[in-house]
Amino acid sequence: MAYYRQAGQIPPKRHTQFRNSDGGLYYEELMGEEGFSSDSSLLYHAGVPSAIVDSVVWELPDLATVANHPLTPRHLKLHDLFVSGAGNNVVEHRRLVLGNGDVRISYVIASEVSPYYRNAIGDECVYIERGSATVETVFGVLSAVEGDYVIIPRATTHRWLPGADGVQAYCIEANSHIAPPKRYLSRFGQFLEHAPYCERDLHAPGSVFVVEGNDVEVLVKHRGNGAGGIVGSRMTYATHPFDVVGWDGCLYPYTFNVSDFEPITGRIHQPPPVHQVFEANNFVICNFVPRKVDYHPLSVPVPYYHSNVDSDEVMFYCGGDYEARKGSGIALGSISLHPGGYAHGPQPSAIEASLGAESFEELAVMVDTFRPLELGEGGAAVDDGVYAWTWAGRRL
After folding, report:
1. pLDDT digits (tens, 9 = 90+) for 192-204
2. What would the mean pLDDT of 121-126 be, rounded to a whole number?
3. Mean pLDDT over residues 219-244, rounded?
4. Peptide bond preceding 70: is omega within 30 degrees of 0, i.e. cis?
5. Which residues are in the Homogentisate 1,2-dioxygenase N-terminal domain (predicted)?
6. Beta-carbon contacts of residue 358 (< 8 Å; ≥ 6 apart)
7. Closest alpha carbon to 78 in 211, 169, 204, 194
8. Any residues with CB less than 8 A from the CB of 95 and at least 6 apart, and which?
9. 0.85 exceeded by pTM
């Protein structure tokens, strides 16, 4: 994110002495991507950010996956994963639905405050399906409400505090960085006029958030020899990691609400890339929002059948009424998985039913991956087992 921000106190010149009122030095930390060759921010700590006093194993939840074999489109009912959010937090109680070597998709319903947490593998994009949360971070505080994407850069220490009604969160964990698509940006990083959103729609922490404390435990997810190459550690810091008195730069967490995405439409059906909101290594994130639909006199508003031969398509249905899936059993809280190598499209009855429609009141978040997705324990637990046969209406 090339959009520069500043919060709190910083010295007039980087990498120079910056002292507190007692004459002691603040400790400067550069948090940067891609080996000093991409976006970064400078953070000024009251304590030493490297000072740890303990590190023990954090036993992660089940992250094992199984191949989608034989090749099968699937309907996963995420709301069946949890009875309620009681006793759950956003960090420790995510259940893995789908994953591969580039991305993991999990779901959680939570009502409890999470531990302090840092993902040292990649960026996280957490979509708030229902409810609200406060996200405290080393950069400051974010308020997250229904429809928000919460983008948290790799290695950002943070914790989740659900609102009074809890929070339902769709968690997309990358093994890389998550950013706006390059085609939306100028060569200097400014959003272009054709982009469906812009800098005004991104909400970063407005001020610093300083907390005092000692011997503070932070759960760290990092690379190792566990399932999916992932392990966890519980690292205890001598002083509170939220001791940043000021920061500036182009790397920070932020929220973007799906209602601020301006849909791109046309006389005939537009392809999925017009719905793209973010990109990462080997996958993209799109959203399908309420919009006017195709206005050619002979248009067919629902999608044509398509074989996205290089991608697996994951659609999370989180609002409205998704026209193309009528008659399939898909409902709010459902995921459809359409794997590469399988031609997919609307249910046959949905095609005629869509003719003459002027608008769709649907809301869905889509992840397209360029490597096959495998089923996590959560996905396997809520597979309806019959979705694949709904186009034909029968099974041998």
Report:
1. 999 999 999 999 9
2. 98
3. 97
4. yes
5. 107-257
6. 292, 293, 295
7. 169
8. 61, 81, 82, 106, 107, 108, 376, 377, 378, 381
9. yes
